[in-house]
Design a protein that fits this description.
Number of strands: 25
Helix content: 25-40%
Shape: globular
Strand content: 15-25%
Number of helices: 13
Length: about 525
Amino acid sequence: MAGGGVDRLSSLSNDLLRRILHFTPLKEAASTTALSRRWREPLWLSSAAINLETGVAEKKKHRQRQGHEHNNAHARFFSGSDDLVSAATGALNAADVPVTRLTLITWFPDYAEVASCYKDLVEVVLSHPAAHRVEELLLVAKDPYGNPYNRKVFNCTVTLDSLQMGTLRILELTNCSGVLVNHTEAVLPRLSSLRLSHCTQQLGSLQRVIDAAPSLAAVRLESVFITHEEAIEATWRHLRCPATTVLVLDTCEWEVTIGPHRHGWFFEKTVDRLKINAMRLRRFSYKGPLRSYSFSPQPLEFEQVDLEFFEQGYRVKDPNRDLETFWKFTRNFTGTKDMRLSVNHLEDIAVLSEARQVELLPMFRRLERLEFHGAHWTKDKTAAVTTILNLLHCCPVLITLRINLTAKYEEEDASNKQGGHKQKGTTRKEILMAAMVGPRYLFPCLQSSLRKVDLQFQLEKKDCLGVKLIKTFAENAMVLEEIRIDSGDEKLCEHMNPRIAKWNSSRREFGATNFVLLPLKR
């Protein structure tokens, strides 16, 4: 309603109202018939969507009342369970047009019997004849206590080959025990998008789903616990996605096996090596600890890659191993045009010696835009500078560079530094030489392509890394047009104007372009 009592919503066309009701929960959609005469026609029945939200959310306020709340949950649910099933089947039966979108949101308490009834409700809804023509299926099980770290999932596995969903295009499951295809001859001809969030999923079952979906273009696994149907023997696992163009692996965990040891129990094996076959892949996103992932064969043309690495608590830090793992991981994406890269400590990925640079550094032959996030130690910036130079060396046609630096102080987490950038076989002389910016021809992007640089950093009292980088680009980037900075000091650009004029004067002597220093808007 608008001011003055004008009902603007009711003035919309039936087609637009049906589109709105397409995403409206069933209870609210059905209640629209009581709004006014305009709404007496049950438009929700022709919206082609059924969005159900059912269940009992029980929040424990006190431990001593747990038994009482347990009984209330049982009584409340079982007394209305038939009504829930009736409401769901009634809505599916009453639809005037084929149902193309089916959403089922369930709240499940921690009681096995109640959870079993929710599972039965899901099976009744999915097996209804009206669901056989569904194009979008969204199943969400909500934790009634709102705990984002709760690893418990709703014990409901969606078995696709028994649902006769030949029209299914989009499948999204949250807090469930995964998706399953039992028969190798099963076919999901139209399935194009699969998203699993906070689920437990067997890798073999996931592969059978992908094999059954020849048009599966997007696979998104978010906080998924990946298990195995057989004992872990091989160190590598394989994932084949022949039609996939978008692949997201966000904070996924692998199953580990626990074996006996004379000193007690310990983690014996974990699969953290994955070979991906996805020739058509154009966008890839990974968030998690450093792992040995590889693409075999490599996709022909990546467009966008987003990599965010963080430390794994139980894993022992090994600087040389992590260094090799990082650069071998990035070697998979030498054909991408756009990359976002985030690491915890810059010294972990600095390749200091020339011999190691030849061995490890890849060449991103098509990379035009790089966004880099990283932390550096305030007392020793050599490794941080080296890491940035390593990246410049890898990007011969880079046009736009964005760097976001976070300063770390020794007292914050001295244990993580573990010797800093002192890699095996590297002398102090080699470190200093690697940190120096040599002749311009050593970095093709500085010579002929890099035009825009964004720097976000903390302005330190002494020897500021951000200011050093401004000077480096000003003196060596020959076609540079602008540097945008965010240092926390709005007057830094003004203070540096005299230096900019001096640098531009010097640049003109070498035939370089003039550049401007501007504030970076967040």
